[in-house]
Amino acid sequence: MDARSALRLLESLYRAALRAVEPEGLVRRCLASPELCRAVAEARATGLFAVGKAAAGMAAGALARVDPRDGLVVLPEGYAAPRDIRRFAVFASHPEPSAASVRAARRARGFFAGFGAGDVILCLVSGGASSLLALPREGLTLEQKRRAVADLTRSGASVLAVNRLRTSLSAIKGGRLGRMTRARLITLVLSDVPGDRAAVVGSGPTVRGRRGDVVRVIGSNRTGLDAAALEAQRRGFAVRRADERLSGEASSAGRRLARRLRALPPRTLFLSGGETVVTLGPRAGRGGRSLEVALSAALALEGGPETVLLAAGSDGRDGSSTAAGAFAGDTTASLGRERGLDPKAALSLHDTHPFFDRLGLLLRTGPTGTNVGDWVFGIRGAGDRVTQ
After folding, report:
1. What is the β-pairing status of strands 89-92 and 70-76?
2. Residue ranges per domain, the chain?
């Protein structure tokens, strides 16, 4: 297999994983279950609430099954609102909350308060909800909350630790939004967190633990990996999956992945998923978690057997980069040096986007409308140089 074929193969695995976590279809299938059909049919009135990077697709799937009395769909600024949900859509800030996020949170509280006993609110939650709905607890300003969360995020803390802090500082997270109503809540979650705990995704604004509520995780990072593995097997490749979730500092994760890839038998595909972190210094360039995983792996693969990988985020945007991720391999670092680039400096300065951009190795998808974390796909025996 030559390098171009290997790149096409890795992108096809990414696309297969994306299709498996397409939110509209996941919601449609879940709402077709007899239990949920009955709950909606017996409700006095139904409300539709969706928030997160996958909110548009999740809401579209719900509208194929439910005719709500009212709806509220909170989307990131810059995301397109399909025609069928436009009348319900409001926009807020991501990845940092703003005054728009506070307005969206207050509107959500009013929306929930408008439903009562005998009603059902269908709650569709995906990653990004923590920023899109931001209402600090009493006595705390938005700027104070933002600063506390930003400091913890820059330190390299996990998404679980960051969401715990967000919940402790919030007037609506941790089920507090759900407690604004006496209606029954059906919460469907697209998970981007370790362990796929619904109460952690988006800081769990509607997971309140009340009897009669329904909470279901309808898709996750693993869902995408399962689909990618089936696609690889369909193409006749052997598949190996990481035993552990992709996590920790991105540069360290890249080196660990490189060791696993170098030990693979030829023409074997390796799959891993999760979410790493990046500890930023006082100055940082343009890049993201997946780009750092890819460049760190490239440095560790240099001089080894022919190997290619793709590291990319499921939401289509990696950190401050405009790309979903990047391709890399055993010759990427040396190719960069030939073009006057310093791969080690790019990694240490967290300035990985320009490096991969110069080499033509960025994967650009635009917003995918879903969000389940990051994936890495790698293959041994890819052939010639990794360049496009």
Report:
1. parallel
2. 3-19+222-380, 22-219
